[in-house]
Amino acid sequence: MSLQQELAKYFKSKDFQDKVNLAIKTDKDFGKGINTGGTEALAKYYADIMEQYVYKYISYSQSRNFIRHMKDSIITDAVFISGTGWIVNIYFDPEIARSESWYLKKYPNGAYLPTLFNNGYSASNYVYKYIGEGVYARSRLSRKAEYFIQKAVKAFNIQYSAKGITAQYNEIFDRNGIGKNTFSRGDLATDVF
Asked: What is the pTM assigned to this prediction?
C-alpha cells in the first residue's frame, strides 16, 4: 500500500475524526492557514445553514403573513466557546420581528412575533382593532405553539453536532423558561410580553 493510500485510510478512521473534532472544540484557529478562515469560516458557513433550517420550520406555519414577515428577520452568528466548540446563535431583527400590539395599553412595546408563534398563547378575552371603513377585526383567543425554533435546532444538531458545531436558542423560546441561552446580541426577553 502506498503512503497516499495509508494517509487516505487514516483520514477516514474514527481515531483521526475524533482528533479533528476535539481540535475544533478546543482551538478556535484550528485549520487556519494563509488566507483561510479555518474553523471560523466553517462556523460562519454552518450559521448560514442554520438560518435556512429556521426558515424551513417557520415556513410550516399556518400563517402566510407570519412566514412573509419573518423571512428577512432571521439572523444567525457563530461564537467560539473553548472546550465546547462553535455555537450558532439564532435571533431575529427586532425591527422586523416586532409588530404593533392590538392592546397597546398593556403591551406598549408591541408583539414579538417569533415568541408568539413559537410558544403559542392563550388570552382571556378578545381585542378589537379598527381596520377602516367601519370594519373591525377581532383577535384570536389562542394560538397553538409551533415550536419552530426547537425543531430547527434539533434537526441542525442531529446533522452537524458531530462536526463540532451546535446550535442553541434563547430561553424565551421555552415556555417553561428552561432553555439554552448563548444569546449574544441582546436579550429580547426584557421587552417581550
From this structure: 0.73
